[in-house]
Amino acid sequence: MPLDDRYRLAFRLYPYARSADQDAAAPVRHPVVVVGGGPIGIATALDLGLQGIPVVVLDDHEGIGQGSRAICFAKRSLEIADRYGCAGPMLDKGVVWNLGKVFYQDRKIYDFNLLPEEGHRFPAFINLQQPYFEKFLVERVREAQADGAPIEIRGKNRVEAVEVRDDHTILTVATPEGDYTILADWLIACDGAGSPLRSMMGLDFEGRVFKDSFLIADIRMLSESFPTERWFWFEPSHKAGASTLLHKQPDDVWRVDFQIGWDVDRAEELKEENVRRRLDAMLGPEVDYELVWSSIYTFQCRRMKAFRHGRVIFAGDAAHQVSPFGARGANSGMQDADNLGWKLGMVIRGEAPDRLLDSYHEERAHGADENILNSTRATDFITPKSKISHVFRNAVLELAERYEFARPLVNSGRLSVPCSYDGLSLTGEDALPGGPARSRPGTPCPDAPLGNGFLLKGLGGGFTILTVDAEAPETVTEDGVTATRRAVSAADDPSGALALRYLGEAEGAVYLIRPDQHVVARWSGYDESALRAALRRACGKE
Amino acid sequence: MELTTTPNIPAPDSFYAELIRCHEGLSDDESAAFNARLILLLANHIGDPEVLSEAMRKASLD
Ligand SMILES: Cc1cc2nc3c(=O)[nH]c(=O)nc-3n(C[C@H](O)[C@H](O)[C@H](O)COP(=O)(O)OP(=O)(O)OC[C@H]3O[C@@H](n4cnc5c(N)ncnc54)[C@H](O)[C@@H]3O)c2cc1C
């Protein structure tokens, strides 16, 4: 097959360059090969590269794809990106919004303000075109490379075949100058929802297809500027779609999603005059805009049965796919990278047993199930599957107009929040009586103000013993793994948020925190043997 | 809280008549919509998830 692009590029960031591997006498063996340079592949490479682990990313294009994909990036993704050192430009470029309106038929039924909680470095989410998000990740890779991080991105390198062995895989890679072979101790498949690797390995991808399609148009407003709000229409009388969503992005670009039904003639619908007909019906004739991009999507919710197959590990859309309501695709993929990076790093360095990687599947499949559940619920509300479900949906909307109680039932996508690993293999004990639920073992640490900065900055990377008005040794080393103390005091945050989020009713607390900022266990005071046991457990040694 | 399954409506006949009267002149679709709104209002009033689940189970005649 020729190496033709399957999509147009927004940014050509890694043009093809011949690699020494192509001229090697024998296939070169690499510790980690990541297939796919989408957001999840690049984030995974960054995580590993920043740990000093050599990683090669193979992507079949020479840069980042153009097109209408993710726009909503949640707080947790920004926190993860911050750990990698690239959240700043995302936040600068992104649009923050808090106001929304919900319409039903020809009228606005209510508006809302998300009233974000104070005391976090990052907002609940930002709107940012996916190509920008990816560009900032790749730019961070370039910076890290300059500082010596052993990351390599190879554009126009398409994986054609994979041979899976017990302790490595053999990849056939096509390039514009012909095929070559490389070996990988660990292969990370981040090759997207259509994952060719998944098919090559004959693996399942089961789930549910939603019988509806969505026409997505990104438009640049030329006339008066629209407010920075999210507008959602159920059964709008303008009839441009069975439901319609309007959302602001950077660069004066707006995202419009029209739900257009299952049996549609794609080519016909995508003709500019037809896209404009829908947009004009919705916006009114006086609004002037330029069409930036339009595409038609159908959605499914599905996941692989197992994310790990020996030395091959799947992450991002390759492992799980959700409908976009609630923005859980890229956001959950970022959590995959966050989860996998430190575990693979420890296993490669010999600090943890191979089975630590089984917990990657355990934790992230749990996350995927939660995301699928949430996005299925939103999809069922937006596109009811039966007559009676439609009746109830509209009853909710009718009531929501008059009575506040019905508004929480309106589901046009629940904001992506990270899942907690309660009760899973690596999660330890909760021995902090009166401790707040939001920082219980398993949860990702909530951010909080700290002096002039924030708590999460500088948390993670390695294991941390976070003491809040409590004593503990500066370091504890258990079986070659060191946890380092970070001492804070409720007094460091006059707003009281730190105490509220980490102490609750307790006077002091000791937390053991993983490299991905999830809480392993917590206690009301330092208990050496309990901490050592929790550390072993978090490394898959119990 | 437990779902009350003993008589709890003070004037059963008049409640029943009022309920049926609400559907007078409604098409089947309108009746279905009315019922849905009524269920949602009552469900919110009850609030207690256990009572609601119990009511749904009992309504299924399981
Ligand atoms: C309309 C729409 C709206 C969305 N909105 C949101 C949102 O608001 N928030 C959100 O979080 N998510 C959203 N998503 C989901 C999000 O776009 C995806 O979850 C995300 O792109 C997944 O990233 P990935 O890196 O796993 O896969 P991809 O981005 O698909 O990247 C896969 C990469 O692998 C490469 N590749 C494939 N095969 C090969 C091969 N054989 N060899 C080498 N390289 C290969 C591809 O070219 C590509 O670069 C949306 C998706 C859609 C369609």
TrEMBL record, chain A:
Regions crossing the membrane: none
Stored SUPFAM superfamilies: FAD/NAD(P)-binding domain
InterPro entries, alphabetized: FAD-bd, FAD/NAD-bd_sf, RIFMO-like
GO-annotated molecular function: FAD binding; oxidoreductase activity, acting on paired donors, with incorporation or reduction of molecular oxygen, NAD(P)H as one donor, and incorporation of one atom of oxygen
Cofactor(s) the protein needs: FAD
Gene3D superfamilies named among the record's database cross-references: 3.30.70.2450, 3.40.30.120, FAD/NAD(P)-binding domain
Positions of the FAD-binding domain: 31-370
Keyword entries, A-Z: FAD, Flavoprotein
Classification via NCBIfam families: PRK08132.1
Name this polypeptide is given: FAD-dependent oxidoreductase
Organism encoding this protein: Pseudooceanicola nanhaiensis
From TrEMBL, chain B:
Record InterPro entries: DUF2783
Protein name: DUF2783 domain-containing protein
Organism, scientific name: Pseudooceanicola nanhaiensis
